[in-house]
C-alpha cells in the first residue's frame, strides 16, 4: 500500500460508516501493490468518501478501514468496475482469507498532542 502519514483519519461528525476489511494474503503478490495504489486514488473520487486507515501485523494480518458519509457512498465504491475487478483478482490470487464489516459510527472524536 502507498505511503501514508502515521496518523489516523480524523474524526468526522456522526453518523457515518466504517468499512473494515481484514485479510491475510497468499504468497502471490503479482500486481497487488499497483492495484492497491490505484484503488486508493480511485476511491477518493467517490462522493462521501472520508478517508482510509491501514495497519498490518508482523504475522501478516492486514486491516484497512474506509470511512464513508453514507451507505450510498459505500454502494458506489462497492460497485465501481475497477474495484469489482480487483475484488475478483483478490479472491483468485491475493487473499488466503478476508472478512468485511460495515459499521455505523455513532460517536467519534480525535485527540492530538500539542507541544507546550
TrEMBL record:
Question: InterPro entries, from UniProt?
Answer: ABM_dom, Dimeric_a/b-barrel, Jasmonate_Hydroxylase-like
Gene Ontology molecular functions: monooxygenase activity
Positions of the ABM domain = 15-88
Q: Name one Pfam family in it.
A: ABM
UniProt KW keywords: Monooxygenase, Oxidoreductase
Instruction: Cite the Gene3D superfamilies for this sequence.
Output: 3.30.70.100
**Enzyme class, UniProt record, top EC level:** oxidoreductase
What Enzyme Commission number(s) apply to this enzyme? 1.14.-.-
Listed name of the protein = Antibiotic biosynthesis monooxygenase
Species name: Streptomyces chiangmaiensis
Amino acid at each position: 500500500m502507498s505511503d501514508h502519514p502515521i496518523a489516523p483519519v480524523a474524526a468526522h461528525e456522526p453518523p457515518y460508516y466504517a468499512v473494515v476489511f481484514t485479510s491475510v494474503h497468499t504468497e502471490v503478490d503479482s500486481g497487488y501493490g499497483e492495484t492497491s495504489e490505484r484503488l486508493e486514488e480511485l476511491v477518493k473520487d467517490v462522493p462521501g468518501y472520508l478517508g482510509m486507515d491501514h495497519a498490518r501485523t508482523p504475522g501478516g494480518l492486514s486491516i484497512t478501514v474506509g470511512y464513508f458519509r453514507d451507505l450510498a457512498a459505500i454502494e458506489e465504491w462497492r460497485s465501481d468496475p475497477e474495484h469489482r475487478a480487483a475484488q475478483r483478482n483478490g479472491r483468485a490470487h491475493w487473499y488466503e482469507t478476508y472478512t468485511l464489516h460495515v459499521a455505523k459510527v455513532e460517536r467519534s472524536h480525535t485527540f492530538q498532542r500539542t507541544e507546550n
